[in-house]
Amino acid sequence: MPLTEGTKAPKFNLACDGDTKAKLSDYAGKKLVLYFYPKDDTPGCTTEALDFTAHIKNFEKANTAILGVSADPVTKHEKFKNKHNLKILLGSDEDHEVLNAYEVWVEKNMYGKKYMGIERATFLIDEKGKIQKIWRKVKVKNHVADVLEAAKAG
Q: Disulfide-capable partner of 138 in 25, 76, 120, 152 (CB 3.0 to 4.6 Å)?
């Protein structure tokens, strides 16, 4: 059954930068922006991470945490965060378990060549662990503002 708004968010347990872990249960009583992105230090992914970092205080005021997830290893996340002074937590899903659970490990097509990769997608999870809103095939421009509005509204 595909994930839809209003359903329970799949549980996860991810290794994160700073030698930390993140589990869905860690965010009980808070909202969570769980965003999936293809690769550290690429133009769109860097812009998205910088936008989330720039608005982190506004998300905190809305009782909302931010967790970015890609298949990159933790060491790569740490270089990415240090290089761009990112203030958000980044989770590593090298085995694609969480990517599959959230249905973002998908077949992509570039220049006629098909391959598997991460669909840029964002899930807003409410205080009780239910999916409040889903954004698929995200375009980075203005995306963080849309997510912040939804976090404030919900």
A: 120
The verdict on whether 45 is a catalytic residue reads yes
Structure token digits, residue 112: 């006629």
Evaluate whether residue 8 is within a structural domain.
Answer: no
Q: What is the pLDDT of residue 7?
A: 96
- CA of 106: how far to CAs of 85, 89, 119, 140, in Å? 30, 23, 6, 19
* CB proximity list for 127: less than 8 A, separation 6 or greater: 28, 29, 30, 31, 63
pTM, rounded to two decimals: 0.95
CATH number at residue 83: 3.40.30.10
Which residue range forms the structural domain that includes residue 134? 29-153
- From 16, 45, 124, 151, the catalytic residue: 45
